[in-house]
Amino acid sequence: MSIRALALDWLSTRHRVGKGRILTSKYYDAAESWTGKDAWAVQIPLAALDTGAIYRTVALSASRAQIAFSDADALGRIAESLPIRFDETGRVFLGDEDVSTAIRTPEMSQGASTVSAHPPVRGALLGLQRKLAARGRCVVEGRDIGTVVLPWAPLKIFLTASPEVRARRRYDELVAKGQTVDLQKTLQEILVRDERDSTRATAPLKQADDAVLLDTSALDEPSVVDRMEALARARFGADLP
To answer: Which domains does the chain carry?
Structure first.
């Protein structure tokens, strides 16, 4: 994959785990602010890990089991035994089922934000995220990657964009997938999610003190990728292929 599909809070880190290197990232929402994880993977051969997909899969599993997103203990048990895996193209599987599309709905986006606020869920998934990131060279994206999951990241990029720009990007993405969405509702959902994630007691979304702020509001996607790659190459130099 490439390092091009991250979003608001991109935490690029390098950390030795065996022979692997980890580039980690934090963000608001990949599509909303245009990240570089997937596109980078093309330019710089690295694996990519979307930790948000893990929380979305917890939300999907809970929804199917008719478990309320407010039931922290039950959600924690789901997270502890979550049969999730990623293939080499980034598709997400729940057991043998490809749920890559099912977890990308607005409902699962809000669901992921809600379930991720519960300490039992975050505690259950912390080890899983670190294990997945330790498999080799990869870029990890998520809202608490650089501050909680992989706080040793030497290069942190906080990718941001105005709520209005992020709403338009999310709207365009969903429309392109054939979904019927309302732009103003999408904006409101983003504002609610940002407030929830930024104020939760456990692992809140915030910019790390040593993160580089990159506002993508006025940038197109190739420009975001170029700037992220430049930051990574400036930090890691010859260590990157």
So the answer is: 16-239 (3.40.50.300)
